[in-house]
Amino acid sequence: MARPASALRGHILDAALDLFATRGYKGTSLHDIAQVVGCSKASLLYYFVSKEAILTELLTPAGEELGALDARLAGVEGIPAAEAAVTGFVDLAMRFRREVKVLFQDILGLTGHPALGAVPAVIARLMAAMAEGSAGAKGLVTASMVIGAVSVTCASDLPVPDEDLRAELIRGALRTLDRETP
Amino acid sequence: MARPASALRGHILDAALDLFATRGYKGTSLHDIAQVVGCSKASLLYYFVSKEAILTELLTPAGEELGALDARLAGVEGIPAAEAAVTGFVDLAMRFRREVKVLFQDILGLTGHPALGAVPAVIARLMAAMAEGSAGAKGLVTASMVIGAVSVTCASDLPVPDEDLRAELIRGALRTLDRETP
DNA sequence: GTCAGACCTGACCGATCGGACAGTTATTGT
DNA sequence: ACAATAACTGTCCGATCGGTCAGGTCTGAC
Predict the structure, then answer these.
(1) Most exposed of A3, A122, B37, B131 (fewest Cβ within 10 Å)?
(2) How many CA atoms within 13 Å lie on the side-chain side of B180?
């Protein structure tokens, strides 16, 4: 075969990132990766000590950048800190989109589950309702933001009473959609 | 043993929901569930035809309620639709918190990964920066919402140019935090 | 008492997983 | 030409997974 001086290593990382992002980490086997790359499973373990080492190498740059953002924010305080945190996090999440997708994959995997068969379509209609009357990009993006915001926040275990949580979620979501009703 | 007329079935569902929510669906084996319940693995498959059937039964109520919300929204349009969609979705996500957690579990599982070791702490500081100056509950909730909103939206593949996406994400996040700077 | 049926289990199965390892092929320096 | 080393692979392994099955145990009806 003899690829030019081991582009193979890079190909493995590429394929792994794609597969992890579409099937999840646990849902992807070494065999799967090898098949996409077109090499043997043993080759993967020639370049990487383990499957987890592949994941580690894929996620490390994002982790380091996040640390850098953290350091950059250390000196700032007050409103500027909030704005810097927001723009920094947005930029980071966008630059490492595929990596973010790896972390969030199994959601999409499970929403395809029979019990939740209609969910994607329903969510799409929900988003449409939220975006009612809003221009193209803004409506789409903000509706998606609300879905993510509410889901993740409910999945987290914030030390906030349910009533307050509900009220803040609704108010926050309406602000996100730019539909404040004071 | 002889539990009172098979409370076992319910116990299995309880334990499975807990485990799925903390280790993820794929990260939980039938053996794990059986161990928590205190019965044999074969008992699980006496009451449920498969592991997936357990997941199905757990997620079905949430799926049905989501469908009901969808139906309820079908008649409404315009601003009221957006508000109804928001409150409906918030209430749903809160009522089925553990189920939502099941869908989102593997994120938290992976953020514990060595390559992302410091991530939870960094995210906590990011959220603190976002909440700067905001009162207790509101700051916590809105910061969590922004993290979720940005992550999920980036993980989705919205048909929106990167520049627009970035701009809307930042504007939307600042609105969520109630820190608009027009 | 005993029979039927619901309840529950230990033991086993095939498939698949991540990984180990000896060996083969290709490349390079001399 | 020829070692030495890097690149790569076929094959095997133990562990674990979801799932099957024959059989044991308990309970209530008669």
Answers:
(1) A3
(2) 11
